Amino acid sequence: MASASRAQFSSKLGFIMAAAGSAVGLGNVWGFPTQAASNGGAVFLLVYLVMVVVLALPMLIAELTIGRYGQANPLRSIASVWPNASKIPLGFGLMGLITALMILSFYSIIAGWLVGYLVSPILDLVGLNSVSHWLETFSTERNLFLAFVFIALTMKVVMKGVTEGIERWSSRLMPLLVGLFVVMIIYIMMQDGAIEGLKMYLVPDFSHFSSDLVVGAMGQAFFSLSLGVTVMIVYGSYLPKDVNIPKTAAQVAAIDTGIAFGAGLLILPAMFVAQKHGVQIYDQAGQLLNSDTLVFTVLPAMFDSMGSTGAIVSVLFFALMLIAALTSSISMLEVPVSCAIEELGQKRSTAVWWIGGLAILLASLIVFNFGSLFGLVITVSTVYLQPLLGLVWAICAGWVWNRAKLLEEIRQGHPDMENSFFWKVWPNYLRYVCPILMGLVFWATI
């Protein structure tokens, strides 16, 4: 077990902001709206909301509980619930660290593009058009430079530690993110074509319902809460013992889902506004064009058609995207940093420097071999490793961990937990239902 001097979040609100910040990333503000737009809008939204409750939330509770019980980095926390000394939890724990680092490396490249698109309109306004054009034009040099800038921002926050860095900045950035969302949604709703997108998003057309849609929504719900990559195990380890984990996890999931819902309210109407401005968003077969690069093609084209107002809206939009990316990247870097501090006895600053440097090295490797590595790293880390690890943590909490010790840990924030409806349902649900659902997600991906 960790020492009593180990860092903790200073308040439950601070933890909720940090955990929600980790969960709220490009998967919410980019991935979810894109999936919704490609799968009938409202039908996907409904299935997604169901999957957050029946799959993501129960597993989020499990990861937070494992972390708080261990009060240590993922390697030690996972080993602490294993009944016998074994190399199995160490192997899966290391796999979680590697996955987090892989995600951070490609994430920094995408987030770097956001930095470029954020700064570009400002440079245009002051006459630095050639620099602005360079920031928006795909090239090895530009990709490398912007990825470096983004990782440097991430390192700066994590360097400050749990309370002064992660908690403080998450508590600042999350309200700012919500504020920007509200401003942008109000603005987009006032534009021609927005109502058409709103109808697609909120009025169900069940002809779009399919088994593929269900599996897609299941995977999106899982990924959007940063499950599988040991982030929530790390954050759980910083939780005080008197926190009610199921209640707090529900609050984190609610904020995360609310942001995803808000992203849909923004992006889908914006797509149809773009269409009104002459930007093609669907092909003749009704398939969404540029779904992978929607944020960097359709929406900038719309902003360009709006004149000087478009420049302001563009800055606000990409600021929103960048904040979402940063709150997630912070948690990805904290995973290996927490291990280096406790397992190698390093100072936080030393751990952040060399692990951040390793992330930059991996990002550089991807940038220099973009065609062969970018998609491969994304697929291996998010499509295969993340759901596999999520399945392992569900089995770990549901089958491996002694049931009495699990109850003892979770009742510390809720003394009457044993008699609650939650406790009557959740352990067996985690044991039987979650592995089946996660197995379906994993099976569908392969």
Describe it for me?
With 446 residues, this protein is mostly helical. It has a single domain (12-445), classed as Hydantoin permease. Helix content is 78%, strand content 0%. The protein is built from 18 helices and no strands. Helix 3 (42-70) packs antiparallel against helix 12 (245-276) and helix 9 runs antiparallel to helix 12. The longest helix is centred in the first third of the chain and has 38 residues, at 88-125. It is globular, with a radius of gyration of 21 Å. The chain starts with 11 loop residues before the first helix and ends with a helix. The mean pLDDT is 87. Keywords: Membrane, Transmembrane, Transmembrane helix, Transport. InterPro entries: Na/ntran_symport (IPR000175), SNS_sf (IPR037272), YocR/YhdH-like (IPR047218). Pfam families: SNF.
Number of strands: 0
CATH topology: Hydantoin permease
Q: Label the overall shape.
A: globular
The biggest sheet amounts to: none
Calculate the mean pLDDT score and round it: 87
Count of runs of 4 or more consecutive helical residues: 18
Structural class: mainly alpha
CATH hierarchy, class = Mainly Alpha
How many separate domains? Answer: 1
Strand content: under 5%
| Whole-angstrom Rg | 21 Å
- N- to C-terminal separation? 38 Å
CATH A-level architecture: Orthogonal Bundle
Order of helices and strands: HHHHHHHHHHHHHHHHHH
Share in helix: over 70%
Unreliable spans are: none
